[in-house]
Amino acid sequence: MHPLDNVIWQALTTRQTGFAESFGEACRFLRDVTSLTSFSEPNDQGYKSLAALVGSKGTAALFLDDPFPGREGWSVVGGAPLVQMICENGDGGSAPRQDEPVEVSPLGIEHSPQMMELTALTKPGPFGCRTHELGTYLGIWRDGKLAAMAGERLKVAGHTEVSAVCTHPDHLGKGYAGLLMSEIMKGIRQRGEIPFLHSRADNARAIALYERLGFQIRKRGHYVVLRND
């Protein structure tokens, strides 16, 4: 199996076991880290384990290769077609130049409220009050407010995911996302790893940026949030 296949499962059972909760053939991140969840296989045993893990009325955010076919006891809360992209040869060096000096700052626990506020507004994907613990997070501040951010999330053998790429609506079009992604990618490269990411398949603007930075679509899949009824 390629490290990026069933990537949430592989992250939780290899490099990120310290953030994992598991039951049988299912596992998930600690709930205040992120809602991402997975199982070894999308079969009867996988869903049975998942139900026990999340409990009655609990939810699970999954990456699936195929659209969720429907399964007794589960209802769809949300989701979208997904693309997984990988940057095997680039380092983000083609990020747009800035017209004005921009300072990129590390983000940590003391910035969690601002990160939560920005991700709640821009909705880059599941983000919790402890997501920043998964890796390096960088931000750009304007007038004392967090204007843009990006960081690292899933980590598997030889690969680290670029995630939570978001910009406040008041600061779109300034190249902040590309700049922050380039810095995150350089850090990943310095560790001898390959950057990858996930994006909604219909987010053409974001995908165009990722392609300029050297990412290519590796596979298509589906993001789905299920509730255990």
Low-confidence stretches: none
Number of strands: 11
Secondary-structure element string:
HEEEHEEEHEEEHEHE
Radius of gyration from CA coordinates: 17 Å
Largest sheet: 8 strands, mixed
Question: What general outline do the C-alpha atoms trace?
Answer: globular
List the strand order in the largest sheet: 4-11-5-10-9-8-7-6
Q: What structural class should be given to the helix and strand makeup?
A: alpha+beta
> What's the CATH C level of the largest domain?
Alpha Beta
> What is the domain total for the residues?
2
Q: Alpha-carbon distance between the termini?
A: 32 Å
Q: How many helical stretches?
A: 5
Q: What is the CATH homologous superfamily assignment of the largest domain?
A: Gcn5-related N-acetyltransferase (GNAT)
Average pLDDT for all residues: 94
Strand content: 25-35%
Second-tier CATH architecture of the largest domain:
3-Layer(aba) Sandwich
Which percent bin holds the helix content?
10-25%
CATH topology term of the largest domain: Aminopeptidase
Provide structural commentary:
The model has no long low-confidence stretch (mean pLDDT 94). The chain has helices at residues 7-13, 44-54, 112-122, 176-190, 204-212, and strands spanning 20-23, 26-29, 37-39, 59-64, 74-86, 105-106, 137-142, 145-156, 159-167, 194-200, 216-228. The chain is globular and about 55 Å long. By secondary structure, it is an alpha+beta fold. 23% of the residues lie in helices and 34% in strands. It contains five helices and eleven strands, in the order αβββαβββαβββαβαβ.
